[in-house]
């Protein structure tokens, strides 16, 4: 198959295929704004042209050297086209997309790289949220913020929580490294506000502070004059990341000091900014910053911010003073020479409150892992709050990337989205004709994930195999960080050429992810462990029924449809083992429900779309924690 690699939108070429949308405005690579309303050039097409677009195998003349068409094959295509034609015309007549331009896998410009309108999503934020009576000034210190600097869920959480608190009237500020890879044109009202010096390894480094807005969220960008945060990606630069984030942590506090900032709450995230509470309580509290209290959110305990005492000392604190079990020593190195420190452990000890991203993950972290003893000692200040999703950005009723909008009251547009993605990716179903399923009734499973071991790579590979055996379709969208994993999935992708029932796209595209969620019948999240997980929530928002492994936040959000005792909250299919048989059984049950109970399935789709996974409840719980520790 065609291997697709790379990032988001590229510039629109003047040499497009015959399927060209009306140019409105090119979406930025960073996708910092989102708009509503999809426009295309409208042309009168006769039935013959529509039937041609609906040919399930438009690529047979282009993707294969041999001629695979036989009289029987042609007859199958003709029969399927008639069914698809009728279904599509009925769907389009209802949804108003009778003149929708249908994509092809042979288009020079992939359909997810077409032009989309832009509109600030903040303008669509709900005006119904009541302001809190006790308003606070909250500063987030973070390594990621969606969509500017996003690798995983951390960036989504920072943006979603910040926006939810702004809607309640709180004064929110986000502090972020000014990574060289951030496109400046993605930031509104960007300006240099001051230059100051911040300490690192015996030197005072000239540092610029820029102010800008991202989706109406105020952001301070910290830009040191040295080599930190230079490079083409957020992580993996030529500089020492640990030292860079130690510098950033102090630079944020130094900026608050020189500008006279006195926030009520400093909210830090992950190991990258876990040095902030140590620096605050052991240094800056004795200077001019005395009001704030510090909250730490742990999004994933896979990374601990390990360093030696000499490295830690480069931030200006004496690392030897933190080498005790009660402070920041890495318990795994006690008695070793040398012992090491953990920034994450230090952050847990020194923060006023510690939050992780789901109640079940909290229980799991208290029972296993070397940090469990530290968390147990600080259990009184440790909470589990389930993340939310930004329901303004993730909204199938207004999503600019979708060829047809839909909501829980009318899901016909979802069928159009499914057709659209099937056409654009050249998906067919191996059993489509023998079992009598037209492509809209072939289950489409989508897996959008980072291709790392935590996400259950062996289960994803098994799902590809078993979905094919069950006569379904599957799309995997994700990037691998390890060369060996990338090679494994490259080989797997090559074995599924255009016209098969599987597509593996080794990339990430914000635009395509929206389309895939809208097209999917099921979203697969087979993680070995998952602190929270957003894919299952986004999938449900778009009417994709989740198939998940019971762990972390997945266990808090998805409840099995075959569990009669929880029928009122049942919304997906759950398996517990990490073996292939457990996954297979979940897939088989999902496919059985989909094919044998179509009306019940549609009811489930509508049900999951109405589940409230927004930031509203999550923000309220965070605000309660802020108030409980506020000085």
UniProtKB/TrEMBL annotation:
Segments forming domain Starch synthase catalytic: 137-365
Pathway: Glycan biosynthesis; starch biosynthesis
Bilayer-crossing regions: none
Coarse class of the protein's main subcellular location: plastid
EC assignment: 2.4.1.-
One GO process term, biological-process aspect: starch biosynthetic process
Reactions mediated catalytically: [(1->4)-alpha-D-glucosyl](n) + ADP-alpha-D-glucose = [(1->4)-alpha-D-glucosyl](n+1) + ADP + H(+)
Sorted UniProt keywords: Amyloplast, Chloroplast, Glycosyltransferase, Plastid, Starch biosynthesis, Transferase, Transit peptide
Gene Ontology CC: one annotated term: chloroplast
KW Mitochondrion (keyword) present: no
Localization of this protein: Plastid, Chloroplast; Plastid, Amyloplast
Gene Ontology terms for molecular function: alpha-1,4-glucan glucosyltransferase (ADP-glucose donor) activity; alpha-1,4-glucan glucosyltransferase (UDP-glucose donor) activity
Source taxon at top rank: Eukaryota
Glycosyl transferase family domain location: 442-605
PANTHER family given in the database record: GLYCOGEN SYNTHASE 2-RELATED, PTHR46083
Family recorded in the similarity comment: Belongs to the glycosyltransferase 1 family. Bacterial/plant glycogen synthase subfamily.
Protein name as it appears in the record: Starch synthase, chloroplastic/amyloplastic
Species annotation: Cuscuta epithymum
């Amino acid at each position: 198959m065609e291997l697709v690699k790379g990032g988001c939108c590229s510039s629109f070429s003047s040499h497009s295929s015959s399927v060209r949308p009306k140019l409105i405005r090119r979406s930025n690579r960073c996708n910092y704004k989102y708009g509503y309303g999809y426009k295309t050039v409208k042309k009168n097409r006769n039935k013959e042209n529509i039937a041609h677009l609906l040919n399930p195998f438009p690529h047979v003349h282009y993707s294969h050297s041999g001629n695979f068409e036989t009289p029987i094959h042609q007859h199958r295509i003709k029969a399927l086209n008639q069914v698809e034609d009728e279904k599509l015309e009925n769907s389009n007549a209802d949804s108003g997309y009778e003149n929708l331009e249908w994509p092809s896998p042979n288009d020079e410009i992939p359909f997810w790289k077409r032009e989309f309108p832009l509109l600030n999503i903040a303008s669509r934020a709900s005006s119904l949220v009541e302001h809190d009576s006790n308003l606070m000034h909250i500063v987030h210190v973070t390594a990621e913020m969606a969509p500017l600097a996003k690798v995983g869920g951390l960036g989504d959480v920072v943006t979603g929580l910040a926006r939810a608190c702004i809607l309640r009237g709180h004064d929110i500020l986000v502090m972020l490294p000014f990574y060289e890879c951030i496109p400046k044109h993605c930031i509104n009202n960007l300006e240099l506000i001051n230059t100051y010096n911040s300490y690192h390894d015996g030197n005072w480094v000239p540092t610029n502070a820029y102010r800008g807005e991202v989706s109406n969220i105020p952001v301070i960008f910290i830009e040191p004059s040295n080599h930190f945060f230079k490079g083409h990606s957020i992580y993996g630069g030529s500089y020492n990341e640990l030292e860079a984030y130690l510098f950033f942590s102090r630079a944020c506090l130094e900026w608050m000091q020189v500008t006279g900032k006195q926030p009520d709450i400093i909210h830090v995230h992950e190991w990258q900014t876990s040095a902030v509470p140590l620096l605050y309580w052991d240094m800056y509290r004795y200077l001019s910053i005395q009001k704030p209290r510090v909250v730490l959110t742990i999004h994933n305990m896979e990374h601990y911010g390990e360093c030696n005492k000499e490295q830690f000392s480069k931030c200006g604190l004496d690392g030897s003073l933190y080498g005790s079990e009660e402070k920041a020593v890495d318990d795994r190195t006690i008695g070793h020479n040398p012992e090491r420190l953990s920034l994450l452990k230090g952050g847990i000890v020194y923060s006023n409150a510690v939050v992780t991203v789901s109640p079940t993950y909290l229980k799991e972290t208290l029972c296993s892992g070397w940090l469990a003893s530290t968390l147990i000692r600080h259990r009184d200040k440790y909470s589990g709050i389930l993340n939310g999703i930004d329901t303004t950005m993730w909204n199938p009723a207004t999503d600019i990337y979708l060829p047809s909008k839909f909501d829980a009251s009318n899901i016909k547009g979802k069928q159009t989205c499914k057709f659209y993605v099937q056409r654009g990716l050249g998906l067919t179903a191996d059993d489509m004709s023998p079992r009598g399923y037209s492509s809209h009734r072939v289950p489409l499973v989508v897996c959008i994930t980072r291709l790392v071991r935590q996400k259950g790579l062996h289960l994803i590979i098994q799902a590809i195999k078993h979905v094919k055996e069950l006569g379904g379709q599957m799309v995997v969208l994700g990037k691998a960080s390890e060369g060996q994993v990338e090679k494994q999935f490259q080989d797997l992708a090559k074995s599924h050429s255009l016209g098969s029932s599987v597509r593996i796209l080794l990339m990430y595209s914000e635009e395509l992810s929206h389309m895939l969620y809208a097209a999917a019948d099921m979203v697969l999240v087979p993680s070995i462990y998952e602190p929270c997980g957003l894919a299952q929530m986004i999938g449900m928002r778009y009417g994709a029924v989740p198939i998940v492994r019971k762990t972390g936040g997945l266990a808090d959000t998805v409840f099995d449809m075959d569990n009669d005792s929880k029928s009122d909250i049942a919304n997906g299919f759950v398996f517990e083992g990490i073996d292939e048989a457990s996954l297979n059984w979940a897939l088989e049950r999902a496919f059985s429900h989909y094919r044998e109970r179509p009306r019940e399935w549609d009811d489930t789709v509508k049900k999951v779309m109405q589940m409230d996974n927004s930031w509203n409840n999550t923000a309220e719980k965070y605000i309660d924690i802020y108030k409980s520790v506020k000085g």
